[in-house]
Amino acid sequence: MNTNRSASMQQYGTSYKRGTLFFPKALRKKVYVVYAFVRAVDQFVDTPWVSKKSAARDLFAFQQQTQIARSGKDVNDPLISEFVLIAKEHDFSWEWIEVFFDAMRMDTEIDIYTTYEQLQWYMYGSAEVIWLMMTQLIGYEEDKEIVFLYARKLGEAMQYTNFLRDVSEDRNDHQRVYMPLDRLSNHWLSSQDVIRFAETGKGDDRRHAFCQQEILFTQELYMEALPGISLLDRQWRFAVWVAAMLYAGILSKIERVWYDQFASDAHTTKREKLRLFLWALKTYR
């Protein structure tokens, strides 16, 4: 594994760097470093041509380097060093970081999720703990446990949004089906149906009904999470609101392509992001 990652933040976090412009300058670099770190780790398991065995090996080596940096020793990776300094400065729970690595390791071991409960554990490590880190960076004005519950809910909503949008990419590029079997079975669907939809780009009425129901479910997750924004440090609330609205807008894009994200690109365009930003600005107060 190449541990010289002086360009890691530029390589892995370019699009997110633009998003951090909504954060005040004092916080922007730290948010960017945290995101660059998790994206760097994510690349080990999400590079299509890398075998699972190789990904697991590189992931373990990166985790070891992070643990060495945590112990106070120098590592030949500026991104790891910066992240660990921020984690210590802002009192990140080390359990969050360990669970994050555990979730990334699941991507080298699990291809299909049986239940939503099993998927929730993956989402906790891959997304919810990231929002716990961000919340710790941002600061908050209410009881820690309450604020963290809202942060976890927002991470769950955003991650499940990703799964609904990227179902074809996840299957065709990474051989993973994140849609849990217990929720698929509610519409007489199986993982094999999802694989067939992803490979052919063609669905049916069952797929339409499933996507419609899952979007409603995910929208409810956002509704449950949004009150937590008002509990954050006042000067950072708008940036989090914008991030939430931009992600929730992906669900609307899936609706606009008639739940056919298997065949259509459900990523929001720059123009759509601008419209969402203006709407977020209008509705913020």
Features:
single chain, 285 residues, disordered N terminus, Farnesyl Diphosphate Synthase, mainly alpha
In whole angstroms, how far apart are the ends?
47 Å
- The CATH architecture of the largest domain can be given as Orthogonal Bundle
Structural class: mainly alpha
Q: CATH H-level name of the largest domain... which superfamily?
A: Farnesyl Diphosphate Synthase
Instruction: Return the CATH class of the largest domain.
Output: Mainly Alpha
Rg (C-alpha, Å) = 19 Å
Q: Major β-sheet, in short? A: none
Number-wise, the strands total 0
The geometry reads as: globular
Count of structural domains: 2
Write the element-wise H/E pattern from the N-terminal end onward.
Answer: HHHHHHHHHHHHHH
Strand content: under 5%
Total of helices:
14
CATH structural fold name of the largest domain: Farnesyl Diphosphate Synthase
Uncertain runs with pLDDT below 50, 5 residues or more? 1-16
Mean pLDDT: 87
Approximately how much helix is present in the residues? Answer: over 70%
Structure description:
The protein is mostly helical and 285 residues long. It folds into two domains: 1-109, no CATH class; 113-285, Farnesyl Diphosphate Synthase, CATH 1.10.600.10. Helix content is 70%, strand content 0%. The protein contains 14 helices and no strands. Helix 7 packs across helix 8 (144-165). It starts with 7 loop residues before the first helix and ends with a helix. The model is unreliable at 1-16 (pLDDT under 50).
